[in-house]
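The authors assume throughout that readers already know how a fold can be written as discrete tokens. Each protein is reduced to its one-letter sequence and a matching series of backbone shape codes. I therefore recommend that a typical entry be quoted early in the introduction. For illustration, here is how one protein appears when written out as sequence plus structure tokens:
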Amino acid sequence: MAWDNTEPAAIRHARLSVMPPVEVYEELQGFDATSVSTVFFAERDLEFMLLARNDLLIDLALAKYGAVDDIVANLYRRGAEQLASDPVYGKGLQFACLANQNVSLGAHGKFFGHCNGVSVDELRRLVLDTNQEAITTLLSNPTADPVLQALFNQLPPFNDLEPDLLCVLVHYASDNPAINHGRSGQHGTDSTLPSIDAGIVELLKTSPVSENWLITLTLLLASMNPRYPYTPDLELGPVLAKWRNSTGTQTPGNLLTDTGGEHTSLNRVEEFLCMLASLYGCRENGLLIQATGGSDDPDVVMRCAFYGRATNLTIEQMQTAFERDADVFVLAALQNNAVFSQKDLRAALEGMLNNEYARATFTKRMEHAKTRWPLVNAGLAERPSPSVTSEGAVLTALSRVEASIAKLTSSANRLASVAKWGFAILVVLILLHH
């Protein structure tokens, strides 16, 4: 059931103090830590009251849905203590803490103190544990943004890891929606840490060439929402050369030399590089964003940079590109926000979808477009595509506005956090004075 923030706190406290544990668990499932009043004021006392009931099921509910970081930390330690006497419950209590999506929001700035009730030393132990079920649970948590920031930037507790272990952990995190939060300031992104974006770029630069890294980085790129504009500090040339040097004599079963790709007619390495170029193949030129490739480039990867990043594609260009590169063009064009911003270009691309992956990605990108650019979808999306010059200018202007709003939102969130704690301190001082 949904959490009712309109119910007076005194009534809720009394009701939950006598409610059967099963019903308490069900009610806490609707607990929403994004509500400022819920996290910082009345419901803090509620959680301590529920903890005092000393009931195993209620404790499990607090571990999974509570927002008081000290309580979650206490329950995580209690779970460790119970592993010997009751391993099933002890493990479940710890995993509930790791999967908690409320405490990350309530205490997101405390990563280097503890995250989801877990100290950095304990996180390091989980990282190096041969049974990786626990760290997988945390890396799959969509509100554990600071954990992903640390992972992708290889900061404690993810520093100095063997490349194979780092690859496994990145693989676990590759489909976590939090990889896109660093671009919008959502959830608990920690401004004191390098961004998730910066870490992904560094991984693309420095990761060794291997089959496992090829699979992991491909999955990571497939999960990314191609925000517009997106011009990170990534030179494509060295990355292309590193991976292309790996394709030598064909070896059956070796993904680095196999001729068949997963979603296109290209081999797996070239397919990965095309995905990479369609996301990162652009540069800033004054107020405009320009693709680094061209539609007539002899290198298919650089053509994909144009297909994915160009702001001035026309239906005629799309048709020509599809005739030349078919499923490869579709793979790259699915990352092009200019295409998704205009109804006629979207319809043209939809008519070119030729496999399940392309259709599923198109559906996902439509959801991105509807939620990320509502003005574009409400306006430009219903009109024929404008001229090449005006199209690029309009989309660039919208992107600049979006970037400014994201910065303002981030600043506002920091000010709001200071204000909340300032208000809490003021209340305490008034109470002490009286």
